[in-house]
Amino acid sequence: MRIDLNADLGESWPRWESGEDAALLDVVTSANVCCGAYAGDRELMRVTCEAAVARGVAIGAQVGYPDRDNFGRVFVEMPAHELADEVLGQILLLDEIARSVGGVVSYVKPHGALYNTIVDDAVQARAVVDAWQGLMAPLPLLGLPGAVSLTIAESAGIPTVHEGFADRAYTTEGRLVPRTEPGAVLDDPVAVAAQAVRLLGQVASICVHSDSPGALLLARAVRAAIEDAGAEVASAP
Question: Which of 22, 63, 86, 137 could be bridged to 90 by S-S, CB 3.0 to 4.6 A?
């Protein structure tokens, strides 16, 4: 069994300068690089991509609402064409930067509120998928199993990757518990690793958030647990 392990990176200069992001790149197989809309900047994108290339880690475009005040974690009502243009612009910017350091964008993963919105909101999901019309190649889209965005993408011939979360609580419907609710973010390494193992066979990629408490410890625990379970850890796209 093959499983990808991804983390959101390039969101914060303090986290980069502390060495946390670089250390995570030694554990994960895919880096969801913030494209500057809700956090980060061009230089942080560049150094993150450069480090990912050096380690053979796949680079993904982490696209999100252009809302730095709320870190992209609050729903933003946007006309469909504006959202499509915003997503496309973020992907193209990261691809330009990745190529400048010898890399390439291998997939796309929405961030925060956008990720959760397009699980059920067909209008914004369609807008996100419409961004692919401006791409030279149909990059895979990561998303929650059952998300309407993945259904729309698949109908448009876009590859999709089912994703699970080791460090987030789920509802009985298979959605993520909102971060505003108690217990939404898991921070116990044993519990997080156990959840990752339960996800094997259900998803192709597992995420550990870089801003979760003890993210590096969690990522190491997850990788060790899924490898002990017999999984080969390798990038999904």
Answer: 63
